[in-house]
Amino acid sequence: MNATQPLSTPNSPATAFALIVAAAAALLGGCASPSPAPILLSLPPAVASGLAAAATEAPATPGAASPKLLAIRRVGIPEYLVSRRVRFRADASTLAEWPNTYWAERIEIGVSREFISALRQQLPGWELCESTCGDREPSLALQVDMVPMDFVRNSQQLQARARVTISSAGAAPRTLRAVELTYALPAAADTAQAQAGVVTELLRRVAAATAPLVTAAQK
Q1: Which residues lie below 8 Å from residue 22, measured CB to CB, with a gap of 6+?
Q2: Using CA atoms, how far apart are residues 18 and 21, in angstroms rounded to an integer?
Q3: Among 212, 62, 80, which Cα is nearest to 146's?
Q4: pLDDT category of residue 57 using cuts at 50, 70 and 90
Q5: 8 A C-beta contact, residue 136 and residue 152
Q6: Most confident of 2-6, 51-55, 132-136, 188-192
Q7: What is the SS3 string spanning the chain?
Q8: How many C-beta neighbours within 10 Å does residue 72 have?
């Protein structure tokens, strides 16, 4: 008769340890499944191509007057939207975020860029610069603030109010024009991509409404 005892019994510490290791391995195996890649979202261009648009402008002729210069400050948007996550209005007092979806760049930078791109097409006789114009003195300064700029998901609508302020340049600027524009724009679908698209449409419309104000302020 072999007197050697079994290495483990159903109730031995070795068996319990083996069961724990097996359970941990199964759990880790379940967690190892790849998660979906994050969606990176950009605002659709306000124009087909800024370079192409610039190429269509007539070259300056010798002796011609320099184009009027407009300094544009960064477009203001609500602080609660300044995030990598793409946020929408769930109800009057609640914000929510599209799952696994992020802005590919800072949203306030994208909004300013696309607004300036759209406005440039509306002001062919002007040169636009952001914030400062180097050693050149701008003719006018423009500030646009979007408060609010909320995508209301349950109605698939972008609700926004744009405050447009045009002021003189120089050490003591004075306000020449100040208007508020209200928009309620429908989105094409209930998606984050449609939200980005309707934001660009808002910027196009604000640019179209701003251009004649700039022209009138210069007269």
Answers
A1: none
A2: 5
A3: 80
A4: very low
A5: no
A6: 188-192
A7: CCCCCCCCCCCCHHHHHHHHHHHHHHHHHHHCCCCCCCEEECCCCCCCCHHHHHHCCCCCCCCCCCCEEEEECCCECCHHHCCCEEEEEEECCEEEEEEEEEECCCHHHHHHHHHHHHHHHHCCCEEEEECCCCCCCCCEEEEEEEEEEEEEHHHCEEEEEEEEEEEECCCCCCEEEEEEEEEEEECCCCCHHHHHHHHHHHHHHHHHHHHHHHHHHHC
A8: 23
Integer Cα distance of 138 and 168 in angstroms: 9
Please work out, in degrees rounded to the nearest 5, the angle formed at the alpha carbon of residue 113 by the alpha carbons of 108 and 116.
Answer: 125
Distances (CA, A) of 216 to 89, 123, 132, 166, 186: 36, 12, 22, 10, 30
Q: Spell out the residues 6+ positions from residue 203 whose beta carbon is closer than 8 angstroms to its own.
A: 43, 46, 111, 114, 115, 118
pTM of the entire structure?
A: 0.78
Return the amino acid letter for 139: S
What per-residue confidence (pLDDT) applies to 67? 81
Backbone angles phi, psi at 28, to 5 degrees: -65, -35
The topology under which CATH files domain 69-218 is Rossmann fold (3.40.50)
Is the pLDDT confidence value at 131 over 70? yes
Out of 59-63, 69-73, 137-141, least confident range: 59-63
Lowest mean pLDDT, pick from 34-38, 97-101, 188-192: 34-38
